[in-house]
Structure formats: structure tokens, C-alpha cells
Amino acid sequence: MLTAPTEPSPFADDQSPAGDRQMELSGARRGGHLRSISAQAALIFAGLAAVYLATANYHAAPSRDTLTAAVASWALATHHTVNLSFLTMPHILWTVPGPHGTLVSNRFPGAVLLALPAYALGGGSHFSLVPAAVVSALTAAGACALLYLVLRRVTDTHTSLAGTLLFAFATSNWTVSARELWQHGGSELVLAAGMLAFLTRRWALSGLAFGAAVLFRPHLGVACLVVAGGLLWAERRWRPAVVFLLAALPGAALLLVWNGMVYGRVTVTGGYSDVSAGGVGPGDFLLNLAGSLVSPERGLLVYTPVLLLAALGLPAAWRTAPPAVRILALAGVGYLASQLWLIRFSGGDGFFGYRTPLEALLLAAPLLVLAGRAGAARTGPALAWALAAASVAIFSSTAFVPGGTSGADVNPWTHWSPAMVAGEYGLGRVVIGALFGLAAVLLAGLVAARSRAERRQASGLLPGLPALDRGGAPV
Q1: What is the mean pLDDT of residues 140-146?
Q2: What are phi and psi of 313, to 5 degrees?
Q3: Which of 168, 271, 429, 437 is a plausible cystine mate for 396, CB 3.0–4.6 Å?
Q4: Residue ranges per domain, the chain?
């Protein structure tokens, strides 16, 4: 059966999660420990929000996808309509015919509704990107803070912090979710909440959050089904899976109601007419899989090479990971498989890096973090830090460039965005951004090394002797 891991002890060495779990906390100490972890998550949110707000896109020409979502949210908040035919230039948006001669956005409702309060408070009579940019930055930061809480359920403080910061700055979460009003920021936020509830055995709350995710990406319903199936397998009883699925139904129902009202037909795909369950076919599916991993323009391993460490340690991590962690990872695989089956891997244009695998990365993050730690143990810290630095530098190279996005209609197998951005804005600007990322990782490495040295010194250790946890086991 699934069990929530015992909270790590604040009295044991942070590098010994096994020792942490062997120590029992009194009610008062446990409550204080949980408050301490929540405070850490709040600090992470504040720091990431500051960076994300500084690098969000407030004025530059956004992606057509995100512009459409933002305009639809503004129109609903300020003009109380989904009909965009009153706009002077609706042809620059992704629109489709609606019922009764209306012209409506083809965006899924999640992002539109996510920015609605911001546009209601500060939208004004003239459209602005600012509310959408602020919402995007804060949502992405919130998702990372929740991810930290998720990771603290399965590993120690330092590994959790490293995994959170890598997701924040070494993936497209920085240049996609935190930059503009894509669907991914909102879906990451509710998925992270659902993951946390799942790991604490709150099946109804978890199902509610996973169900809300389909408002952003309807095929995240596949992840819901995988989690429910995993629950049935791990718990050996029906009730948890049934509770989870019933709690997920309101999200699916709201999606169908929105599509019926906005598009005049009750469908899952809504305004997308070029997506069918028949998919792209086996050949294109394999091409999509390869492209999402290694294509120069959209490859996960090209932009986030630190994932190579996780690949190296994945077999060992899978064998030792708790069942809940494996279920979440399989949910991510199921979602990504459905994404690659339904549509091309490139994900369109107007953004830097990849975007469609982001939800899969988040769902698999607990397993990937454990795998990365196992991989780093095999390769040594030098290579681990080098891959982490390279991953962060790739994204920081364009995160501070106003137009740091890929151009339209490029071949993802022959183009690479950093080179394109360097050609448009100058090589110096890209190099400075990359050096900023490298310097940040170097500083983090120095702080981590000093912290480890201080812990050893506090333990009264001589150089070269291994640290021991409270149970006397080597760290």
C-alpha cells in the first residue's frame, strides 16, 4: 500500500534521508518541522518570483498562442464576452467561428480563466500584456515552490532544493511558463498541488487538482487515468481510485461546459480542429519521440543535458523509489506519449526551448531527482555540476533578451534558438546571459561546498573521515 514518507528529521544530517526516517518526532517538533519546510517553500517562491517577474515578457511581440489567450482573458474580464469580433485586427489571433456568427479564441479555458482576475483588476479599456506576464511569472514560481514540498516528501533538503532550482532555471519553465501566458504554467501549478496531495494520501484533493489540469491540457486526462490505475494496483482496493476519479470529474465537466458554450459543441478538443484520436501514426510518433529528445531546436537532452545524469541513475532509482513516485512518473510518460501521438513535437513557434514535455518533466521530477542523485554518485560531483551549469547557462543565455524566442516556421532539426537569437540581438548579449547563469551555478556550488565543510567541522570530523548519521551509518 502507498504510504506517505515520514517527514525528514531536522536533527539528523540532511544527507541521510534513511536516518531521518528512523527518528520519530513528537507532535510539537513535527509541527515545527512542517512549518520550517513551508517557510523554505515560501522563500523559494519569493526568490523565483523576483527573477521570473524580471524576465517576463511585458511588451515584446509575444507568441500568437499566448497573445490569443491573453486577449481572450482581457475581453472576458473587461467586455464580459468571448466574442472577439469587435477587435480591429482579430486575424493576428488564433480564432475560430463560434455559435451565432461569433469569432472566438481557440485556446483551452485554463489559461484564459487563470489570468481573468488580473485583467479584471488591472485590464483597463486598452489591452496590455502586463497582467498576463505577472500571472505567468507568479504561477510558474508557485509551481516550483509546490514542487519543493513534493520533493521534500521523498528526499532530503539539499537534494530537494537542487531539483527545484534545476526545474526552475534549467528547463523551459523559465523561458516558457514564466515568460508568457502559455497553458503550461497553470497546468504545472495544479499538477504540483495534486502531486503533493497524492503523496500525503489525500485522494479527493489530488483528484480535484489533476482534474483541473485538463482545463489547461485536456490530454492530461491520460495522467489522471494512469494515477487512478496506479492507486488501484498499489492500494489493492477500489476506494482510493474511485475517490480520486470522482474528484477529477468537475474539471472534465467544466471543460465540456466551456466548449459547449464557446464553440457550440460539447467536445474535448474545443477550438482545435486539427487534432484527432487517430494520431499522427506510428512512424511520425517515433519521429516525434526522437525530436522531443535530441532535435537541436526542441530536444530535452539538448537544452537540459543534466537529464543525462538522471538517465544514468534511472534503473537504480526505479528499483528503490516508493510506489507513489513511480506512479507519478508513469503518469508523466502516459501524458507525453499522448502528446507525441496527437500532434507534432515542435509545439509551434514563438518560444525558447521545448514546451510540450514540461508537464511530463514535472510529474516525473521526484523520480528524476532520485535518479540524478544516483547518477551523480556514479560520475562524481564535477560532471554533475558541469551538466547543471551548462543546462542553466543555455536558458539564461536568452532569458534576459526581450525577443528571446524562436522564429516562425523553422525546421527543428536544422535550427537552434541560441544561434538565431545571437544573430538577431548580438552574440555578446547571449554570452553575457550565459555567463550570468554559469556564475549563479558556481556561486551555488561554493555555498554548497562551504555548507558541507561547516557540517563536517561541526561534527568534529577530521579531513578524509566519513560523516555519520545519527544511527552511525556513513553519509
Answers
A1: 98
A2: -95, 5
A3: 437
A4: 33-379, 381-402+416-460
